[in-house]
Design brief:
There is one protein chain. With 219 residues, the protein is α/β, with parallel strands linked by helices. Helices cover 35% and strands 19% of the residues. It has 10 helices and 8 strands. Strands 1-8-7-6-5-4-3-2 form an 8-stranded parallel sheet. Helix 3 links the parallel strand 3 and strand 4. Helix 2 runs parallel beside helix 3 and helix 3 packs parallel to helix 5. The chain starts with a strand and ends with a helix. The structure holds D-xylitol-5-phosphate (DX5) and zinc ion (ZN).
């Protein structure tokens, strides 16, 4: 059984001291750095663009897991590849018919790719794209804001995705994003999720290393 990976979201970090925050996450045992890119159109809020990704790149050897909450993600991919992203995930809702094209385009740069579905989007909307994915991100909150409450009805979609991946012998991680806490982490992992994104829970912790280990199940 693969070790559960913890991907803290920098959405909850101190943006005025991001480099130090990244180094601290690595020291505290994070497995990936989750970068929530928001363009103010796909979601109301604007967070940061590829320049933030290139700024944090030299501060860590951890994989940068870039979650594009943007319209026309295909047009933005190259900037994030050049900024040093290791994973780029794109919303099925933003890509529509071009989801497979987006995933192939990301992979053409040698960067790992993934599809994302929001809480109201059925698993079926991305099912056929899974064979092209290195990561499948199930949003457990509505995209656009950190610190929201975990939406329970999204967990079965993660389980459905994991069962599909296993039954088709695919090599794709299932990631969940939003509202992950020490209280619900074990249940989420039990549903087959490989990567937990956590912003608030990690950054408001008095002991980040302890919290990251606790989210991972104590290891
Ligand atoms: C929503 C963001 C958040 C963030 C995690 O668009 O993607 O889900 O990463 O936020 P927390 O862990 O604070 O719920
Ligand atoms: Zn995210």
């Amino acid at each position: 059984m693969q070790k559960t990976k913890i991907a803290p979201s920098i959405l909850s970090a101190d943006f005025a001291a991001m480099g130090a925050a990244i180094e601290k996450l690595e020291q505290c045992g994070a497995d990936l750095i989750h970068c929530d890119v928001m363009d103010g159109s796909f979601v109301p809020r604007i967070t940061f663009g590829s320049q933030m990704v290139s700024a944090i790149r030299p501060h860590t050897k951890l994989p940068l897991d870039v979650h594009l909450m943007v319209v026309d993600p295909i047009a933005k991919v190259k900037d994030f590849v050049e900024a040093g992203a290791d994973y780029i995930t794109v919303h099925a809702e933003a890509c529509g018919e071009r989801l497979a094209e987006a995933l192939r385009f990301i992979r053409s740069f040698g960067v790992k790719c993934g599809a994302v579905i929001s809480p109201d989007t059925p698993f079926a909307a991305a099912e056929s794209a899974l064979e092209l994915c290195d990561m499948f991100l199930v949003m457990s909150v509505y995209p656009g804001l950190g610190g929201q409450k975990f939406i329970e009805r999204t967990l079965p979609k993660a389980e459905q995705a994991k069962n599909y991946i296993l039954s088709h012998g695919l090599n794709c991680l299932v990631e969940i994003d939003g509202g992950v806490t020490e209280e619900n982490a074990a249940r989420i992992v039990g549903a087959g999720v490989d990567v937990l994104v956590a912003g608030n829970t990690v950054f408001r912790s008095a002991d980040m290393a302890k919290t990251i280990a606790a989210l991972r199940g104590g290891v």
